[in-house]
Amino acid sequence: IFIGGGTPSLFSGTAIGTLLQGIRDRLAVATDAEITLEANPGAVDARHFAGYHAAGINRLSIGVQSFDATHLQLLGRIHTPEQARQAVAIATDAGFDNINLDLMYGLPEQDPQQALSDLAQALELAPQHLSWYQLTIEPNTRFYHQPPPTPDEELLWEMQQQGQEFLHTAGYIQYEVSAYAQHGKESGHNLNYWTFGDYLAIGAGAHAKLSTESGVIRYSRERHPQAYMQHSGERINLRQLTADDLQLEFMMNAMRLTQGVAVSLFEQRTGLDVDCLCRGIAQAQELGLLERNTERLRPTPNGRAFLNELLLLFDPA
């Protein structure tokens, strides 16, 4: 179970407990299920964290983004570096032993030393998991309409290489393009996405992927809370994936994983024969982007570094 946002950490522990009980009343939830809640350091309450833990939340994902006050301000974040540190301390005191920190690099006017400083300050807090990813400029945002000065490709590459080496030396395993974990602390819900698993959409703006007898479908829910409440049972943007969709979407997810996936998983999750990937696989192998044996498909280090180029080989468009 993943409770994202928005800012779900504005809810009380009692409210989250009510939500989880409602889920358990309707679905069979495994006793060892990973149950994650996203938390904003600027909306953290010590009583809430203790309440979340008591309600059954066993993993927190805290959106730190940066430990540099200037960068946080440029990103429009409402918290300070000290509030981020306090959030982790509060979570630890509340009993959480599985905490993810979200960090970004490639921030406006950031240099490699500042990016490394963010990582160093994050590791001082000893999180079990780090999501460390490059800033992307999304449509309909302030940065999209007024692009800030961001590091060039050479600096981004330097940040990435130095950061990966730093995290490796510190004992964090890079198991996905932007995910690093202590041993045994990989994110269960993200691994489900990346292995093309199914998931339900509950709540405003949520997205779903489901395998049905007639094929794989995707749908979403109304994004605006008022519209969602008025049409809470309705699926919107419902579509069934074509064979071309399945091939590309499976590879888009699976090739993010450092160890790739079992060849048999492609057939299990798509219902297609792996032979339909042969042309793309052969081209990727020739370019040194992909390894394949009888059991696994795995991106090479170059394949992970040039993931877009690898995926284009599986795009039928």
Description:
- With 317 residues, the protein is an alpha/beta fold.
- The protein has 3 domains: 2-192, Transcription Regulator spoIIAA, CATH 3.30.750; 203-241, no CATH class; 244-317, Arc Repressor Mutant, subunit A (Orthogonal Bundle).
- Helices cover 41% and strands 19% of the residues.
- The protein contains 14 helices and 13 strands.
- The strands form 3 sheets. The chain has a 7-stranded mixed β-sheet, covered by helices on one side. It has a 3-stranded antiparallel β-sheet with strand order 8-9-10, with no helix packed on it.
- The protein is globular.
- The two termini are 34 Å apart.
Radius of gyration: 20 Å
* The CATH class of the largest domain: Alpha Beta
Mean pLDDT: 94
Helix fraction bin? 40-55%
SS content category? alpha/beta
Give the total of beta strands. Answer: 13
* Individual helix count: 14
Hey, roughly how much beta strand do the residues contain? 15-25%
